Each structure stands twice: as C-alpha cells, then as structure tokens.
Amino acid sequence: MGASQKTDPSNICIDDISKTREDPLARAVRKGLASGENPVHKGIMCVFSTELPQAPIKRSDAADTAPLPGFRSGILPVLGPLPAMFGNALAVIVIEELAGWDTSWPATTRKNDNKSARYHRRLSAKELTHTGR
C-alpha cells in the first residue's frame, strides 16, 4: 500500500487487506473494493506498514523542494529505499504463489517498544562481551 510518510522498514507487513491499519491508501482501497456490484472485503494479500504516517509537507513549502522553478513536486515525503522494500516484499508473495509454496504469513502486530528495547539490551551485552567496550 502507501510507502509515503513512512520511515521505519521494520514495520513492513504482508497480510490480507482486511487486516491493514495506519495506512490511508489501504483504507481508500478497502472502501473502493467494498463498494460496487461485487464487494470484496478480504482475500487480497498486500504489503503495508503499521507505522503511523509522518506529518506531510505544507503545500506552501512544497515549491522549495522542487528541482526546478515551476516544477510540480510531491508533498508527501518518501524515504528512498522504502518503496523498493515494499516491492521486494510484494515480489516474494508473487513468487511463492507461482511456485505453489505456503504463503501463510504470521499475523501482523503493532510495534512493541519493549521488544525493541530488549533486543537493544541483548545486542549491547553481546557487543560488550566481544569488544570489551
């Protein structure tokens, strides 16, 4: 789904579109799929981020980011590698489907700051053990 206004690749998830959250583009796509003659509510795998969107650039400041005067520039900031990471995750889904492999992904979870802190403590302890600093 939408990679703009996201900065943390650890929040990238692969799951059913019905389980997306914190993604305005996914919300719009879900709404569009649910309306119409043949409504679809689930069953479509997608790549999305559970990260809350960052604040968009104000329209008045967008001209300052344009490469040339009068050139239309986007107002939703994008961290360069994130769209590519979304694409790589999507390619994994397609390749596994074509190969007939099991594509049951783990359930998406919200970022757990306690878990991040625990990993950081473990990594710091290992670094201290190996380097002595």
Characterize this entry briefly:
The chain is mainly α. It is 40% helix and 8% strand.
Describe what this molecule looks like in 3D.
With 133 residues, the protein is mainly alpha-helical. The chain has one domain. The protein has helices at 24-34, 59-62, 81-99, 113-131, and strands at 12-16, 45-49. The chain is extended. The termini are far apart.
Please summarize the sheet with the most strands: 2 strands, antiparallel
Average pLDDT value?
77
Share in helix: 25-40%
**Domain tally:** 1
- Global morphology: extended
State the helix count. 4
End-to-end CA span: 42 Å
Beta content comes to 5-15%
Q: Which oligomeric form is depicted?
A: single chain
- Which regions contain 5 or more consecutive residues with pLDDT less than 50? none
Instruction: Report the order of strands and helices.
Output: EHEHHH
Placed side by side, the strands forming the largest sheet appear as: 1-2
> Which class best fits the helix and strand makeup?
mainly alpha
Radius of gyration: 19 Å
* Overall number of strands: 2
